[in-house]
Write a sequence for this structure.
């Protein structure tokens, strides 16, 4: 039970080694050396994870410390691994998607030197550096999911944030990229602020940061009440869970801390797929699932979670329908899907959230990598208004993206159907306060999801070919290419697409039974008896085929289909309509295009306000009050200053300083002799 | 352990070495002064290593004690010793000195011997402060260490150095005088003893304790510096040469914080508890208020100076919440801040040496011409923002945990640094390091050379090592911190 799996340590260390070699010796080993060494590292991690999965699947759980990081205040802070079904699932997903992205990157970043200004030394070895970063990310993410304690969780949590920062701002000379990475880091810090306070409360009341110690005392946390505001006793466990969840809201981009994710699209597309869709942003979902023994004890926290999740799921999906940048459509779709996962957490359907996390990792990676394939084919054109008709030229990309869209829309029998439908059903059955509201939002979100998914497909791949002519300008800021004649991407791009598309089709069908309704997660997830949604669903589950047939008769299927049909009508049958509708809807379109005004407000209130406050404190406090009044205050003081300053200026500083010491001694001696 | 007087060697080796360097004379011998200074500085660090390896973790008693009568008439002794609180600072101080010597290697072209000697002598004097157990000895070292700093700012400083040196002096003088009075009072109260350990056992009424506490507070708060007596620091930093800033930030600020632990808390424990609310309020003001002020600085050195004040707020906060997480976190923060702020000032120095400007607005896109430097600068900036796996995280994390334990809202206010610290540091990095090349000066920059790389790389290794494995630091402190906390918890009225 509490032993260390002999292979566990090598899983995170293999990608770390790859990152170190590619990062520090990139020049020496060259481009091929860098991608081979990092791919080797991640492959090793994937294979080892598979072996560990075999052992965990046989019913074993591993929980042990690697080393003691520090001790203080009676708490032993450790670095250690807890490997159970939850962990090993994440390990497989992370390593698999990471490997695909590594391979894909060979193609995507092949001409990265074009992305840098001529002569910039920052662009030298950027190819190797990119591989170092994504391997470092893989290491950080593995440390996060494999942790057996809150300290290391926080470590991984911030480390993935760091790599995200480095990668969003990878093209460090672009103003939009370095704005976006700073924004991402700071918004995440707001979440981490809550997260750290939650950890602090746990340390204060449990005297340990190890999961097992803390979970063993969960009843104590539930029984203790704290009066943070006078006269308002709150259950400690609710305060802790809400604090922790604020961390999840930052990392998993939940309303209102979602604002950083769309801007993160400034980073190269492979990392949008890996970090900002498949893995890092799901860290919050994973964390809450991991903390199920705590969240289950707090009805208040679960209500908070379900409402935030549902708001994110619906309102972010709406923004996706007005975006014209292909990556941003996928980004808002990611926000919406993360909202679904969060809503599932609030409904105590942790396994459904984790299941959707896994299927989403595949189909969203396909969508992003497919978008990236289009972007390189069109020489860095991301605007869908300058695409159209691409299916003839890029059949593999088209088919894989179509599969991704079908899964994203939640249409049977694709993977997304099983996971999304389970979430909707779980929220429907949930007794958490707020679940009724959440159910309406996520149900409406299904229509929107069907619409934006197929809008993307029809807009980019069907209809008139709009990439000739105007497309020559736009984002294309380097070199002069001839008339664009899009062609299918090389195999390093298409093979990962295919390998990710396969699970996007079958993972749901194959896994829904065991993952959701079997005992797949075993003891890793705890559900209180008063939250029976998943149990009820399990009772009614009669195989994948049964679920598909049943699904055909429920509202989500018809809503998704209606969304897809609407997209078909608007973008294939009557492509003139969208502009007219937009012109008519005025205010509503404006609100969506302004993304509800969050960016504007944050820039004005938080960024502007902080600078105003800082300037006020500096000029008013430091310079006027402290220095002006107190330090340089009275005229007498100024005169005294002047006389001493003259001493300095006459070059006697050395003597002066010494005389001060001597004077003090004389004074002291006199004083003592008098006594 | 051998019978060598290790502490005396740690104090006097750099001082005597510094005098030797001074003896090389005029600048035509600078080629001799530089290597000699480096040899002395490295030797000065090496001789302090046995203090760590030979340190007994199990006891809170003073170790490596040396005693000799100095002025018998007043019962003043040359009494040295270290415990788990002070020993690490001697190592830190001796470690920083060679780096400072290296940092001034090329850029200081005038009065080289004097410059190097000042740093060596200051290093020895500061070791004296951290190891003195006799109040007069402490006071002499405490005041004497200011002289080299005055000189460094006053001679090798910037255009406005006179005002800065003076402000530095004025602030410090006021504090020192009050402390002197307190020391003399304690001398009489204790029956003519200057032994600090005797004073720790002294019974004193609450009113007197409060007076003593306030007297020490003024002296030490200026040094830390705590809000609102902090305004000398940004000016001093801006005018000081790079090496001066490094020592000021890495070591000198720690003297004040150390004073709280050696004087205020053990001598006036009841007053410390009584006035803890004040100290916590001042500390949190430093963390939050100064964080906002740092945000709007246009001068990189000022920004880092304000960041220092904010980080030192964490130190004083950790002391006065009276739990071991807080206090050990504060001590870790002091060491870590020594590495990080030192490195940040060195980074600004690297830029200043090339462009002769510290204004953020004069930079932009440095990464295009100095990629190696940019990587290191970003690393230290991340450490300054408290990123886990760097030393900057360890102390902040422990203090925040301790603060939440003490009171949720105190922890809440302290944790704001997570956002503010990242905001002011990374916003600076964005404007200086990233972006397109801003002007032809930036376009002509050359990346760091082997010497600069060695200095910054060494510090980076320290920051990373301490972040990944802080245990060797925390376990040295346990016994002494526990003892101090126990001591403070018992009323001595």
């Amino acid at each position: 039970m509490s032993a260390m799996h002999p292979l566990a340590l090598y899983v995170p260390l293999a990608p770390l080694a790859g990152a170190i070699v590619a990062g520090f010796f990139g020049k020496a080993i060259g481009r091929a050396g860098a991608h081979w060494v990092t791919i080797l590292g991640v492959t090793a991690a994937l294979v080892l994870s598979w072996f560990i999965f075999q052992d965990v699947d046989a019913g074993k759980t591993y929980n042990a410390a690697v080393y003691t990081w520090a001790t203080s205040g009676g708490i032993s802070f450790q670095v250690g691994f807890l490997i159970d079904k939850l962990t090993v699932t994440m390990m497989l997903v992370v390593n698999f998607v990471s490997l695909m992205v590594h391979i894909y990157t060979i193609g995507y970043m092949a001409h990265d030197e074009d992305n840098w200004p001529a002569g910039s030394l920052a662009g030298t070895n950027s190819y190797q550096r990119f591989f170092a970063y994504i391997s470092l990310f893989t290491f950080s993410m593995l440390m996060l999911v494999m942790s057996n304690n809150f300290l290391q969780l926080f470590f991984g949590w911030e480390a993935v944030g760091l790599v995200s920062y480095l990668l969003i701002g990878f093209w460090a000379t672009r103003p939009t990229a370095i704005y976006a990475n700073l924004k991402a880091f700071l918004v995440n810090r707001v979440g981490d602020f809550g997260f750290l306070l939650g950890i602090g409360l746990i340390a204060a009341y449990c005297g340990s940061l190890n999961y097992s110690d803390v979970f063993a005392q969960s009843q104590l946390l539930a029984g203790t009440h704290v009066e943070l505001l006078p006269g308002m006793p709150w259950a400690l466990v609710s305060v802790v869970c809400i604090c922790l969840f604020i961390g999840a809201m930052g990392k998993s981009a939940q309303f209102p801390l979602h604002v950083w994710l769309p801007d993160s699209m400034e980073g190269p597309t492979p990392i949008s797929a890996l970090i900002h869709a498949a893995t890092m942003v799901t860290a919050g979902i994973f964390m809450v699932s991991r903390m199920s023994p705590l969240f289950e004890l707090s009805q208040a926290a679960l209500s908070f979670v379900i409402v935030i999740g549902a708001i994110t799921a619906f309102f972010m999906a709406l923004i996706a329908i007005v975006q014209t940048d292909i990556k941003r459509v996928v980004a808002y779709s990611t926000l919406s899907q993360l909202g679904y996962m969060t809503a599932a957490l609030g409904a105590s359907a942790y396994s459904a959230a984790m299941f959707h996390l896994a299927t989403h990792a595949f189909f969203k990676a396909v969508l992003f990598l497919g978008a990236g394939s289009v972007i390189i084919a069109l020489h860095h054109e991301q605007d869908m208004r300058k695409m159209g008709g691409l299916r003839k030229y890029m059949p593999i990309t088209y088919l894989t993206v179509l599969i991704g869209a079908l899964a994203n829309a939640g249409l049977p029998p694709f993977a997304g159907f099983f996971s999304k439908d389970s979430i909707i059903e779980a929220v429907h059955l949930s007794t958490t306060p707020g679940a009724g509201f959440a159910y309406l939002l996520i149900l409406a979100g299904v229509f929107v999801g069907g619409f934006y998914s197929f809008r993307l497909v029809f807009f980019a791949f069907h209809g008139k070919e709009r990439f000739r002519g105007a497309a020559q300008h736009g984002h294309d800021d380097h070199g002069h290419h001839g008339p664009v004649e899009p062609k299918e991407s090389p195999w390093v791009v298409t093979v990962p697409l295919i390998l990710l598309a396969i699970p996007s089709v079958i993972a749901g069908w194959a896994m829904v039974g065991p993952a959701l309704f079997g005992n797949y997660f075993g003891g890793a997830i705890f559900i209180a008896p008063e939250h029976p949604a998943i149990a009820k669903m399990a009772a009614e589950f009669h195989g994948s085929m049964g679920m598909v047939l049943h699904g055909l008769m429920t509202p989500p299927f018809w809503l998704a289909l209606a969304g897809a049909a609407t997209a078909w009508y608007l973008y294939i049958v009557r492509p003139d309509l969208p502009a007219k509708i937009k012109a008519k809807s005025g205010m509503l379109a404006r609100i969506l295009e302004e993304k509800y005004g969050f960016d504007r407000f944050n820039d004005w209130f938080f960024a502007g306000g902080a600078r105003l406050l800082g300037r006020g404190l500096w000029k008013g406090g430091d310079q006027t009050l402290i220095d002006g009044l107190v330090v340089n205050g009275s005229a007498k003081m100024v005169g005294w200053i002047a006389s001493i300053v003259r001493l300095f200026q006459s070059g006697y500083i050395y003597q002066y300083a010494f005389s001060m010491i001597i004077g003090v001694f004389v004074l002291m001696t006199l004083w003592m002799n008098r006594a | 352990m051998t019978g060598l007087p290790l502490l005396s060697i740690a104090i006097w080796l750099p001082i005597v070495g510094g005098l030797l360097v001074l003896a090389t004379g005029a600048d035509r011998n600078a080629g001799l002064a530089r290597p000699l200074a480096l040899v002395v500085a490295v030797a000065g660090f090496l001789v302090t290593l046995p203090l760590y390896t030979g340190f007994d973790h199990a006891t809170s008693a003073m170790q490596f004690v040396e005693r000799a009568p100095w002025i018998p008439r007043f019962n003043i002794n040359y009494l040295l010793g270290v415990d788990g609180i002070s020993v690490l600072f001697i190592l830190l101080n001796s470690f920083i000195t060679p780096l400072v010597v290296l940092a001034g290697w090329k850029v200081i072209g005038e009065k080289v011997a004097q410059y190097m000697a000042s740093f060596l002598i200051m290093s020895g004097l500061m070791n004296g402060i951290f190891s003195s157990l006799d109040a007069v000895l402490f006071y002499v070292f405490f005041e004497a260490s200011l002289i080299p700093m005055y000189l460094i700012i006053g001679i090798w400083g910037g255009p406005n150095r006179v005002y800065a040196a003076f402000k530095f002096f004025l602030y410090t003088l006021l504090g020192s005088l009050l402390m002197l009075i307190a020391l003399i009072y304690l001398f009489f109260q204790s029956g003519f003893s200057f032994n600090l350990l005797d004073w720790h056992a002294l019974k004193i009424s609450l009113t007197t304790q409060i007076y003593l506490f306030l007297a020490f507070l003024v002296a030490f708060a200026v040094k830390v510096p705590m809000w609102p007596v902090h305004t000398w620091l940004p000016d001093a930093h801006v005018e000081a040469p790079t090496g001066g800033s490094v020592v000021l930030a890495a070591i000198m600020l720690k003297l004040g914080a150390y004073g709280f632990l050696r004087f205020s808390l053990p001598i006036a424990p009841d007053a410390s508890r009584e006035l803890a609310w004040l100290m916590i309020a001042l500390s949190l003001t430093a963390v939050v208020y100064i964080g906002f002020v740092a945000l709007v600085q246009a001068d990189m050195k000022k920004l880092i100076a304000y960041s220092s004040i904010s980080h030192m707020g964490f130190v004083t906060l950790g002391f006065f919440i009276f739990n071991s997480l807080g206090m050990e976190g504060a001590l870790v923060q002091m060491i870590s801040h020594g590495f990080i702020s030192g490195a940040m000032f060195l980074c600004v120095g690297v830029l200043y040496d090339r462009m002769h400007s510290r204004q953020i607005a004069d930079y932009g896109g440095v990464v295009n011409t100095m990629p190696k430097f940019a990587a290191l600068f970003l690393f230290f900036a991340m450490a300054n923002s408290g990123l886990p796996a760097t030393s900057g995280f360890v102390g902040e994390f422990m203090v925040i945990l301790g603060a939440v334990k003490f009171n949720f809202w105190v922890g809440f206010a302290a944790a704001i640094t997570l956002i503010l610290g990242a905001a002011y540091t990374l916003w600076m990095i964005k404007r200086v390091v990233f972006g397109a090349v801003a002007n032809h000066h930036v376009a002509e920059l050359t990346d760091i050379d082997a010497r600069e790389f060695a200095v910054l790389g060494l510090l980076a290794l320290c920051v990373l090592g301490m972040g990944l494995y802080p245990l060797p630091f925390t376990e040295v402190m346990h016994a002494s911190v526990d003892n101090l906390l126990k001591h403070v918890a018992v009323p001595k009225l």
Q: What stands out?
A: Residues 471-480 of chain A have pLDDT under 50 and may be disordered. Chain A touches chain B through 72 residues (CB under 8 Å).
